[in-house]
Amino acid sequence: MTKKLLTLLVIWIGIFWFSFASYVPTAKDTSNIKNLKNQLDKLIQNNTINLRDFYNQTNQLQSQYSGDERLNYMITQLQSYLYTNLSAQKTAAKATTKLDKQQFLAEYNTGYDSDITLTVDQCTLQYNTIDNISFAYDFPTALTMAIWYRESNCGFYLPKNGNGPFQITTKNYWTWEMNQQLFIETVEDFLKFAKNKLSKYTLSWNLSYNNFDYTGIVNFAALYNWGTKSWWLIIPNNPKYVFDGYGEEYSGASRFGVLPQFLKVLERELDNKY
Question: How confident is the model at residue 121 (pLDDT cuts 50, 70, 90)?
Answer without folding.
Answer: low
